[in-house]
Amino acid sequence: MIDIEKLRSFYYVIKEGSLIKAASALDKNHTTLSKHLTDLEQSYNIKLFVRKRKRLELTEKGKELFTLAQSTIPNLENGATEILSLSATYFFAAFVFIPRAICIRATRSPADRIPPIPEAMP
User: Fold this and answer.
1) Residues of the chain with pLDDT under 70
2) Residue 41 within any structural domain of the chain
């Protein structure tokens, strides 16, 4: 099974064009990303890059893995963002909005209070 964090590192190195830029985008150390790339190569016993002067050139296997990463990593990141967004919305509703609404309702004079919602009749 592929390590998603290592695949993400690989994806960003190719997308950004360098280890340094990818490290900055991921807020990681470039040494960590280099280790992730080496681990990927060793785990699958393949060569992902031909290391040339100041650049990495993808091998055929590297191109195949990058195609997989292109269809996987952005979807995972978007899904995580959506989940966090929903979590924040529910948190706000449960811990901020609803308690404040209850307090406001409780402090109003009886004449200003909103009547309770009647239960549905059978």
Assistant:
1) 1, 79-122
2) yes
CATH of the domain at 60: 1.10.10.10
Residue 109 bridge partners (DSSP) = none
Output the CA torsion sign for 24, 28, 29, 35: negative
Query: Do 13 and 37 contact (CB within 8 A), yes or no?
Result: yes
The number of domains in the chain is 1
Check if the beta carbon of residue 10 is closer than 8 Å to that of residue 39.
no
* Spatial separation of the C-alpha atoms in residues 56 and 78, rounded to whole Å: 27
Q: How far apart are CA 77 and CA 95, in angstroms?
A: 26
Give residue 68's domain range: 4-76
Q: What is the pTM of this model?
A: 0.61
> Does 122 map to a domain?
no
Q: What is the pLDDT of residue 47?
A: 93
Q: At what angle do helices 4-16 and 19-26 cross, to 10 degrees?
A: 120
